[in-house]
């Protein structure tokens, strides 16, 4: 009872919605330094590989993290790795708000906006339904669906943080990151070819690519590979999906039981409120373009570091034992989202 009461009144444990994270001793930078050093070096290596070979940064960060998985059990590095996978992620999500501008979203028009909302809802629903059919948890289905429907790895990690370790563990999150990275890379190569085969206009192609590819950079890159105008449309559509991350997290957080009593209440993690605040300030034009670009670079770096740390912490034996079912769930949601995006492109054309 004392544990539940102390958790309820805590103001610094916003993401521990179930009070299932044991309180730890006060950490200093001396405790965090070894793990953060490992994560930083791993993220820099991932960035080099991404630039050198043109591979997705998220995928490279995950692979580098998994290659350092033997450090996951090291007591000296554990505090820093845990900090990177949680706190750095939350700060990165706040900074993503600097990408969002409400005027760009409104410019898409009502038909496009309704289509995007429908696609996100379809992705999350498909993930949950497929997970139930294949014997996985609802939490895993929500992780997979949110990653497909919103913004790839960032959405999966944010939702895992909001759900808490009891519902979404590191093994489930890593499986989603593996699947989403691979399928987003494939989509970047294949979807522009489909748009060409369907003789889509720049508007239609931009909508298709922005509404269906998981990762932001890959969606924008695929758009510009079609045409500069398609790239601009893809960026706006994709960032509109990104803007839906905070509302989805807020809805999930508000619907989860609080503490051990099962009472429900509108508890919203601080990083969700921060996302809304930064997006609102950016929409008012108070963030200079240069500062917004810098915030975007920092956000990408923080999210890549969080992915690297997640790979280091991943339980490899659990990943191997899971088999192909998690990938089937992600593929199913990806296929439905692609079909819905094609239909949306015909509607706005």
Rounded mean pLDDT is 85
Radius of gyration, in angstroms, nearest whole number: 20 Å
**Fraction of helical residues:** over 70%
Could you tell me the strand content as a percent range?
under 5%
Separate helix tally: 17
Strand order of the largest sheet: 1-2
Helix and strand pattern: HHHHHHHHHHHHHEEHHHH
Which blocks of ≥5 consecutive residues have pLDDT under 50? Answer: 1-24, 260-266
Largest sheet: 2 strands, antiparallel
Name the structural class.
mainly alpha
Number of strands: 2
Large-scale geometry:
globular
First-to-last CA distance: 59 Å
Short description:
The chain is an all-alpha fold and 349 residues long. It has 17 helices and two strands. The protein has helices at residues 2-9, 29-53, 57-67, 78-96, 102-107, 110-133, 138-151, 153-163, 170-197, 202-212, 216-226, 228-243, 245-255, 270-283, 289-313, 316-322, 325-348, and strands at residues 257-258, 263-264.
Helix/strand layout:
Layout: H1 2-9, H2 29-53, H3 57-67, H4 78-96, H5 102-107, H6 110-133, H7 138-151, H8 153-163, H9 170-197, H10 202-212, H11 216-226, H12 228-243, H13 245-255, E1 257-258, E2 263-264, H14 270-283, H15 289-313, H16 316-322, H17 325-348
Helix pairs in contact: 2-3, 2-4, 2-15, 3-15, 4-8, 4-14, 4-15, 6-7, 6-17, 7-8, 7-9, 7-17, 8-9, 8-13, 9-10, 9-11, 9-15, 9-17, 10-11, 10-12, 10-17, 11-12, 13-14
Summary tags:
349 residues; mainly alpha; two-stranded antiparallel sheet; disordered N terminus
């Amino acid at each position: 009872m004392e544990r539940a009461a102390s958790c309820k009144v805590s103001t610094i444990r916003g993401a521990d919605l179930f009070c299932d994270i044991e309180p730890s001793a006060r950490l200093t930078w001396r405790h965090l330094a070894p793990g953060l050093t490992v994560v930083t070096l791993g993220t820099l290596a991932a960035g080099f590989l991404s630039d050198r070979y043109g591979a997705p940064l998220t995928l490279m960060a995950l692979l580098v993290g998994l290659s350092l998985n033997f450090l996951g059990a090291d007591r000296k590095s554990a505090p820093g790795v845990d900090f990177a996978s949680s706190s750095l992620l939350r700060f990165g999500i706040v900074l993503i708000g600097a990408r969002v501008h409400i005027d760009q979203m409104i410019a898409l028009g009502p038909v496009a906006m309704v289509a995007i909302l429908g696609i996100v809802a379809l992705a999350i629903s498909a993930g949950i339904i497929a997970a139930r059919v294949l014997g996985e948890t609802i939490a895993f289905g929500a992780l997979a669906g949110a990653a497909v429907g919103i913004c790839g790895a960032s959405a999966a990690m944010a939702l895992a943080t909001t759900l808490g370790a009891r519902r979404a563990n590191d093994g489930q999150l890593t499986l989603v990151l593996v699947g989403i990275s691979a399928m987003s890379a494939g989509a970047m190569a294949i979807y522009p070819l489909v748009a060409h085969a369907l003789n889509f206009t720049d508007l239609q192609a931009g909508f298709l690519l922005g509404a269906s590819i998981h990762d932001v950079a890959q969606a924008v890159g695929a758009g510009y590979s079609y045409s500069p105008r398609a790239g601009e449309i893809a960026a706006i559509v994709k960032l509109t999906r990104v803007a839906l991350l905070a509302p989805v997290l807020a809805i999930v957080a508000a619907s989860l039981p609080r503490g051990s009593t099962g009472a429900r209440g509108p508890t919203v993690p601080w990083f969700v409120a921060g996302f809304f605040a930064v997006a609102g300030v950016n929409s008012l034009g108070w963030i200079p373009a240069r500062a917004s670009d810098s915030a975007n670079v920092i956000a990408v770096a923080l999210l890549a570091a969080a992915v690297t740390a997640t790979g280091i912490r991943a339980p490899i034996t659990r990943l191997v034992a899971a088999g192909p079912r998690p990938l089937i769930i992600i593929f199913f949601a990806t296929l439905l989202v692609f079909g819905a995006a094609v239909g949306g492109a015909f509607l706005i054309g």
